[in-house]
TrEMBL record:
Protein source organism: Xenophilus arseniciresistens
InterPro entries, A to Z: MoCofactor_Util/Proc (IPR052698), XdhC_CoxI (IPR003777), XdhC_Rossmann_dom (IPR027051)
Gene3D superfamilies found in the cross-reference section: NAD(P)-binding Rossmann-like Domain
Pfam families in UniProt: XdhC_C, XdhC_CoxI
Domain XdhC- CoxI: 15-86
Highest taxon of the lineage: Bacteria
Protein name per the record: XdhC family protein
All residue ranges annotated as the XdhC Rossmann domain in the record: 168-310
Length: 343
């Protein structure tokens, strides 16, 4: 499943290039609890078609009623408008907002299709782009960005940074990789699988995943992980995993980890120190055993555990040490010899 922002912008581009009227709604401010974060976007076509979301559904319904032909309305024209929902308790209840929740949207009417096409093209090329909207007249300009940034709005303009898709490189095909690839895809990651072993690749069934047959360390170099990438080794084979992990640790990947038990993780560190001149400091970013501890033993449960940890790291959410697999199993006194190679 593609990145949600890119999907919204791609649909909006197509609608406008086809001559259909449409609006782009962006969450620009929130107070209290809010169902969608600042920067969230949705597109609404004149016939009531919606892509993306700014709430749990009720605000979308109101926008459809006010600005589409389904509500017997004509979409406005002109400069962008700010609209606020949930100012009163009655409004918050009517629009399904959490208690005390208020959000403000910027509505842009009939965004210029050429600018949308240029933005989508840059995102598809893996670039980080700032979309700057002049509030006086809705004029848009695009500028490159060096790092992700929070949405900014003032009296003159809105600046929303759109990044390329988050990416995941999986080393090793198999059942666990299939579950993890599926979860990553519906979480908005573009997934690449690398496995030089034909006997493992032959049963791969997850659509939308790019499959590579290179040696994993070569695949990591070609993948060129950046700060929106993660690399996960799943083969249990040091000949395949170790070199790939070492390559990944030299990049800006936000997450680098390998499946395995506590004993396997300790052995991996020892091999890398002995044979590859690594130190504990250079291996500090290498995660393993990966995942959060939920007592998982089956491939789908292990995948849930691993994906939860990846998302927490991506979202800069610190996890308590008690959720780490090694720490939790140590506290529970689970013998390493009895561990499955899991979370």
């Amino acid at each position: 499943m593609e990145n949600l922002d890119v999907m919204v912008l791609r649909h909006l581009r197509d609608w406008r290039q086809a001559g259909r009227r449409a609006l782009l709604a962006t969450v620009v401010r929130t107070w209290g609890s809010s169902p969608r974060p600042i920067g969230s976007i949705m597109a609404l076509a004149e016939d009531g078609a919606v892509v993306g979301s700014v709430s749990g559904g009720c605000i979308e319904d109101d926008l459809i009623a006010r600005h589409s032909l389904l509500g017997a309305q004509q979409m406005p024209q002109g400069a962008p408008r700010l609209v606020r929902y949930g100012v009163t308790a009655d409004e918050a209840h009517r629009f399904g907002l959490p208690c005390g929740g208020t959000l403000e949207l910027l509505l842009e009417f009939d965004p210029e299709p050429q600018a949308l096409a240029a933005l989508v093209a840059q995102l598809e090329a893996g670039r980080l782009v700032q979309r700057v909207v002049a509030l006086a007249d809705g004029q848009v300009r695009l500028q490159s960005a060096d790092a992700p940034a929070a949405l900014h709005i003032d009296a003159q303009q809105l600046v929303n940074t759109f990044g390329p898709e988050y990416r995941m490189l999986l080393i090793g095909a198999g059942q666990l990789a299939e579950y993890l690839a599926t979860m990553a895809s519906f979480s908005g990651f573009a997934v690449t699988l690398c496995d030089p072993r034909a006997e493992y690749r032959g049963s791969w069934q997850v659509s939308g995943v790019r499959v590579l047959t290179d040696m994993p360390d070569d695949a990591v170099r070609a993948f060129a992980p950046d700060s929106r990438s993660c690399v996960v080794a799943l083969t249990h084979d040091p000949k395949l995993d170790d070199l790939a992990l070492l390559e990944a640790l030299e990049t800006a990947a936000f997450y680098v980890g390998a499946i395995g038990s506590r004993r396997n993780a300790q052995a991996r560190h020892a091999r890398m120190r002995e044979h590859f001149d690594q130190t504990e400091a250079s291996l500090a970013r290498l995660r393993g055993p990966i995942g959060i501890y939920i007592g998982s033993k089956t491939p789908p449960e292990i995948a849930v555990s691993v994906m939860a940890e990846i998302l927490a790291v991506k979202n800069a959410v610190p996890l308590p040490r008690e959720t780490e697999v090694a720490t939790a199993k140590g506290l529970l006194a689970v013998p390493a010899s009895h561990e499955v190679a899991s979370a």
